[in-house]
Design goal:
Layout lengths: L1 H10 L3 E5 H14 L5 E5 L6 H9 L3 E4 L2 H9 L7 E3 L6 H9 L4 E4 L2 H14 L3 E8 L9 E2 L9 E2 H6 L6 E2 L2 E7 L3 E2 L4 H22 L5 E3 L20 H12 L9 E6 L1 H4 L3 E13 L2 E6 L8 H4 L11 E2 L7 E3 L5 E3 L15 E6 L8 E8 L7 E4 L21 E6 L2 E12 L15 E7 L1
Parallel strand pairs: 1-22, 2-3, 2-13, 3-4, 4-5, 5-6, 6-8, 6-10, 10-12, 12-13, 15-19
Antiparallel strand pairs: 1-14, 7-11, 9-10, 14-15, 14-21, 16-21, 17-18, 19-20, 22-23, 23-24
Helix pairs in contact: 2-3, 5-6, 8-9
Length: about 450
């Protein structure tokens, strides 16, 4: 915790801290868990920080993006256009044109309409595109926390529809179908369930190749590799997955070892989840009608905002003491608290009995609670806390525009040294009719600024 303590003292809270050494370690573990010779995409939605994107691109990852903003983030981080795949169940003409104008020509297409839209923009701009056909499997994989396909879904085209009317899915002159995209679930920590979903994907890909066309050269089997979120715990290591997957690929997609077909996987959560901590300061502790409340300077606008709106299960994060007290506070030019941070809490005082209480944020809404009736360690006003395992789906998956609070500092460290400290700002720009893109946005634009 010493480094976190120093960072809280220097940059104040709330603050996200991302460790690039942890990113490299996760990448090494995942590459070991996947068959040699397969491709790996980093899903930018997990953490779009440019240094995180650049780190994984430098390790050999291709990049999967799901919006013009993510696409620009990848290009800005130095990812070559030909190593970017644009996905999403709904892509507007302007989003497709935005990609093609920047020489990003690889797409995942979810329907005949989507294929036609990509083809139309490719013809208009004179830039040929290649498409992976996103497939919604007819068979679900049991035991998944969040299914992407295998049920009624906005993602992809049902496999039965493709097999019934394959002529609708063979692409266009300027938008050729070059492969298949199967992504069945997310946040799966059990190796047997991962293997089961990939086995279903390989079997389906083998069937569809003979239906849609033997010219298909890529099968993207998705990912879903799980890891703890906002709770203590180690990232799982899938020790025998590579061997078992290799056998599955040999049986279902012969020729993949010789490069006849490229097999790809995707990950965002696994690659970045354990690289991040969220530092936060206790603003108040009090009791209300017999309930203990601990109010923090962070909340659903910085962590798990979708959970705060009850769209997904509650986060209920673990909070660990990073400091004993904040002995002095000041306010910087942006109105953000900065506090000094003494040594981490240690000894018997750190192990005192936890008591149930509510962990609340500073927002003016009763929905701003991170946990309820959860055993919490003793806390005092000014204590600095750390939430672990929030390198993925932290800040970017939260309600950053709600109530206008300043966004947390984002600090990137490598080998114990700070390599970047920036803060995103929301700004408003004029927008012309029908215009999109970084030079003319219809609402808010995220800008990074050094701290």
């Amino acid at each position: 915790m010493t480094l976190l303590t120093d960072l809280a003292r220097t940059y104040g809270t709330p603050a996200y801290v991302y460790d690039l050494q942890a990113v490299r370690s996760a990448h090494a573990d995942l590459r070991t868990a996947l068959p040699s010779g397969t491709e790996l995409y980093y899903s930018v939605k997990a953490n779009p920080h440019p240094l995180v994107i650049a780190c994984l691109a430098g390790l050999g990852c291709r990049t999967e993006v799901a919006s013009p903003g993510e696409l620009d983030a990848a290009l800005g981080a130095g990812v070559p256009p030909d190593r970017i795949l644009l996905t999403a169940p709904g892509k507007s003409e302007s989003a497709v044109a935005h990609a093609l104008a920047r020489q990003v020509t690889h797409f995942s297409a979810d329907s005949p309409t989507d294929l036609a839209r990509i083809a139309g923009q490719a013809e208009r701009l004179g830039v040929p595109a290649g498409c992976l056909l996103r497939v919604n499997a007819d068979q679900a994989v049991p035991g998944m926390g969040l299914s992407m396909t295998g049920t009624a879904s906005q993602f992809g085209a049902d496999a039965s529809w493709i097999l019934r009317e394959p002529h609708l899915f063979r692409g266009h002159d300027m938008a050729r179908v070059t492969g298949l995209h199967l992504y069945m679930g997310t946040n799966i920590a059990e190796q047997d369930k991962l293997l089961r979903q990939f086995t279903i994907g390989v079997e389906l890909a083998a069937a569809l190749r003979t239906s849609v066309g033997e010219h298909l050269t890529t099968v993207d089997l998705g990912g879903g590799f799980g890891t703890p979120f906002a709770r203590q715990g180690d990232r799982p290591v899938f020790t025998s997955l590579a061997k078992e997957l290799t056998s599955v690929l040999d049986g279902g997609l012969p020729g993949w070892r010789d490069g006849e077909i490229t097999v790809a996987f995707e990950s965002g959560r696994y690659l970045t989840g354990d690289c991040g901590h969220l530092l936060t300061t206790v603003l108040d502790t009090k009791e209300s009608k017999g309930t203990r409340f601990t109010v923090l300077d962070t909340g659903i606008h910085h962590l798990g905002g979708m959970s705060g709106l009850r769209r997904v299960p509650p986060v209920s994060p673990d909070v660990l003491h990073a400091t004993a007290t904040a002995t002095a506070t000041a306010t910087d030019a942006d109105g953000v608290r900065r506090g000094t941070a003494p040594a981490p809490r240690t000894g018997a005082g750190a192990e005192r009995t936890r008591t149930p209480g509510v962990l609340a944020g500073p927002l003016c809404t009763p929905l701003d609670t991170l946990s309820r009736n959860t055993p919490l360690p003793p806390m005092e006003t000014g204590d600095v806390l750390a939430v672990p395992n929030v390198g993925a789906y932290g800040l970017s998956a939260s309600l950053i525009a709600f109530l206008g609070h300043h966004l947390p500092v984002e600090i990137v460290v490598d080998a114990g040294h700070v390599v970047s400290a920036t803060r995103l700002h929301l700004t408003r720009h004029d927008a012309g009719p029908g215009e999109t893109g970084p030079s003319s946005l219809p609402a808010h634009h995220l800008e990074g600024a050094p701290v």
